[in-house]
Amino acid sequence: MTSASAAAGKAQDSRAFEAAARVGYVVLGLLHLLIGVIAVGIATGGGGDSADQSGALQQVRDAPAGLALLWVIAVGLAALAVWQIAEAFVERDPDAKKRWAHRAKFVGTAIAYVAIAVTAVTLAMGGSSDSSESSQTLSARVLAMPGGVALLVVVGVAVAAVGVAFVVRGCTRAFTKNLSIPAGTAGRGIRVFGTVGYIAKGVAVGVAGVLFVVAAVTHDPNAAGGIDAALRSLAALPFGQVVLWLVGAGLIVYGLFCFARARYARM
Hints:
About 80% of the residues lie in helices and about 0% in strands. The chain has helices at about 5-45, 55-60, 65-90, 95-125, 130-145, 150-170, 185-220, 225-235, 240-265. By secondary structure, the protein is mainly alpha-helical. The longest helix has about 40 residues, at about 5-45. It contains nine helices and no strands. Helix 2 packs antiparallel against helix 3.
């Protein structure tokens, strides 16, 4: 094989992998659409399903051709996770602190994608998954450790900080740095969808972090939970159903933004 043909082969492989990673963004969009719909259902008095990744994936499994879709979801998210790891390796920000902060973000995002992919594979193989139950089990184990209360507080604060970062990213439109946004109405729409979506997701993730802190302070692992528990806790607040409806609608918008991201992300 000549060097030219080898280079062409590598370029073709890179394009194929990029396509798989872009499918991952489509998958994220689908999951957030389903989570948002479930959240809106809870706000309007329905929605018995879990408003989180496991609940969304269970809906996918129960749909026509659901098992095949679960495998597509797993492959897309796995490719997206590998892409994030690659981004961490090639990060070259001249500021050392920012460079390592970016690398930590890429690795953390990759871990999150892998976790969802594993859930998809588990459901595709006939298993079951409950994000809230897993969060409660994790909290119980952490609380049983020496210094577990402080450690769980740190976990909660870290998760809440991620939520705040999402809100800031939405308000400042920092997400546009990684997109090749077109001009005109389409570009303005993508910016609005990204802003609304990031803020809504930030609120949901931030509340989930607060629940971990509450679990630590009260020594009650059942108080902890994932996105589903966070969204349901919003419904218990004054005007909570309105707030939950808005957050659910925002998550639907974030899902639509992910579809645009699949098209316009700089890969």
